[in-house]
């Protein structure tokens, strides 16, 4: 058997790449290295802007050329770094050498010794990870989550009046509307999305053990914490002043737990939609040319929701591992975080793939309102709640002498199917006021949905 040509090991880089490839701009090795070059270049600009160590601020043209190192970062830089790292065995050191090499090319050798000045690798890494994760979340993942929320909201509004039988514990229960039930998911997801959007992205820039010791030895009169703060905040990040060698990763733990929380809600959505399809509440819109089953031509399998379900489980597991691992570092530094963080893109990739499937799946279903109405008409016993509640109100108002309305309705309906005629006969024989009796007689399962329709308006 001949060997295959080199193949992607992960399906995210194979069959699913079209759905998740945009994350590679930020959460790939190349994306991380580009951010590292950005941090190194901007640190050079920050130091020279303050005229430290006899330097002068760079001319605008020189700043543009320096920034082009990361703005135009491409295959040549990727290859250069791979070759250099094979010698250095240190990824951040390879980036430093790249910047020094390009400074020489740009004629900026005079500031070369300020490259990576007083930095530990984790100053560069914590800032680079904060930048790449922030951009991936804000530019790719969160917009996709918002798109799913928008699709859910549209469905909720469209089906706000579509009465349906609820199934608490899988059993017939007080009716709702499909719009309200979908609205619950949109409401839950929007709340978590807002929490994610308001999260911090922290970086440190304080040297080998977070004390600015090297900085002060070189320039004791400089307010280095303020220099570092201004630098980090100038990159659009939040500054962590009190750290060990590493930034403590708590912001990452918070973010990944929230993303995992969103994934749990999305998983709940996927299994509920799957169940609604299985009982006929939703029909699936055929996609031209698609095959549902290799042997049963009639089938349209709910693959979008099944795919989402599985990928959310994979993503949730990885995010949970990230949170559990990153919250701890032995003493001032260990390397468990280094290899763990290389899987951030994998975790977000499976989550993004799930979101893509959900977004598409929600456009490929159609509500079967006739099935919903037929189901309601077969379950008149759900009105027992309304009847016993009205009877209680009548007793409280002194218009009824019934002693135990709950037991009365339990004897009539529990474990039994009761139709419209039986319920009407029962209501007519109740010891309650005429007005209450007429309200109950006018009620049907399809109209016993309370404020379900109006609740959809809460989505805004």
TrEMBL record:
Its EC number is 4.3.2.2. Pfam families: ASL_C, Lyase_1. Keywords: Lyase, Purine biosynthesis. GO terms for molecular function: N6-(1,2-dicarboxyethyl)AMP AMP-lyase (fumarate-forming) activity. One of its GO terms (biological process) is IMP biosynthetic process. Pathway: Purine metabolism; IMP biosynthesis via de novo pathway; 5-amino-1-(5-phospho-D-ribosyl)imidazole-4-carboxamide from 5-amino-1-(5-phospho-D-ribosyl)imidazole-4-carboxylate: step 2/2; Purine metabolism; AMP biosynthesis via de novo pathway; AMP from IMP: step 2/2. SUPFAM superfamilies: L-aspartase-like. Residues 329-448 form the Adenylosuccinate lyase PurB C-terminal domain. Catalyzes two reactions in de novo purine nucleotide biosynthesis. Catalyzes the breakdown of 5-aminoimidazole- (N-succinylocarboxamide) ribotide (SAICAR or 2-[5-amino-1-(5-phospho-beta-D-ribosyl)imidazole-4-carboxamido]succinate) to 5-aminoimidazole-4-carboxamide ribotide (AICAR or 5-amino-1-(5-phospho-beta-D-ribosyl)imidazole-4-carboxamide) and fumarate, and of adenylosuccinate (ADS or N(6)-(1,2-dicarboxyethyl)-AMP) to adenosine monophosphate (AMP) and fumarate. This is Adenylosuccinate lyase. The gene is purB.
């Amino acid at each position: 058997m001949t060997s295959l040509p080199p193949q992607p090991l992960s399906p995210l880089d194979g069959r699913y790449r079209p759905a998740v490839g945009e994350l590679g701009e930020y959460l790939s090795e190349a994306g991380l290295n580009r951010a590292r070059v950005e941090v190194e270049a901007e640190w050079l600009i920050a130091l020279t802007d303050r005229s430290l160590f006899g330097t002068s601020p760079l001319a605008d043209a020189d700043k543009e050329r320096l920034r082009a190192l990361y703005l135009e970062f491409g295959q040549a830089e990727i290859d250069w770094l791979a070759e250099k790292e094979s010698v250095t065995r240190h990824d951040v050191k390879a980036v430093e050498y790249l910047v020094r090499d390009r400074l020489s090319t740009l004629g900026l050798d005079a500031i070369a010794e300020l490259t990576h000045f007083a930095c530990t690798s984790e100053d560069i890494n914590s800032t680079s990870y904060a930048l790449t994760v922030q951009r991936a979340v804000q530019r790719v993942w969160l917009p996709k989550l918002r798109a799913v929320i928008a699709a859910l909201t549209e469905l909720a509004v469209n089906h706000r009046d579509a009465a349906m039988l609820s199934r608490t514990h899988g059993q017939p229960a007080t009716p709702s509307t499909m719009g309200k039930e979908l609205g619950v998911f949109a409401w839950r997801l929007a709340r978590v999305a807002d929490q994610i959007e308001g999260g911090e992205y922290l970086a440190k820039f304080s040297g080998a053990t977070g004390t600015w010791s090297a900085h002060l030895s070189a320039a004791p009169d400089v307010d280095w914490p303020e220099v570092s703060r201004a630098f980090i905040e100038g990159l659009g990040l939040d500054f962590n002043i009190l750290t060990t060698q590493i930034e403590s990763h708590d912001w990452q733990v918070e973010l990944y737990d929230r993303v995992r929380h969103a994934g749990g809600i999305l998983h709940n959505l996927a299994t509920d939609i799957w169940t609604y399809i299985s009982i006929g509440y939703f029909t699936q819109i055929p996609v031209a040319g698609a095959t549902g089953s290799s042997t049963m031509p009639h089938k349209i399998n709910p693959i979008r929701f099944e795919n989402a379900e599985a990928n959310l489980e994979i993503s949730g597991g990885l995010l949970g591992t990230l949170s559990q691992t990153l919250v701890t570092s032995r003493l001032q530094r260990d390397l468990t975080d280094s290899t763990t963080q290389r899987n951030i893109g994998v975790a977000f990739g499976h989550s993004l793939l799930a979101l893509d499937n959900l977004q598409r799946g929600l456009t490929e279903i159609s509500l079967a309102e006739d099935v919903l109405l037929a189901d309601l008409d077969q379950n008149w016993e759900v009105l027992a709640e309304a009847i016993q509640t009205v009877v209680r109100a009548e007793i409280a108002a002194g218009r009824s002498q019934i002693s135990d309305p709950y037991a009365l309705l339990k004897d009539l309906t529990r474990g039994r199917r009761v139709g419209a005629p039986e319920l009407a006969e029962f209501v007519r024989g109740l010891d309650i006021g005429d007005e209450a009796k007429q309200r109950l007689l006018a009620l049907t399962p399809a109209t016993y949905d309370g404020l379900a329709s109006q609740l959809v308006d809460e989505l805004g």
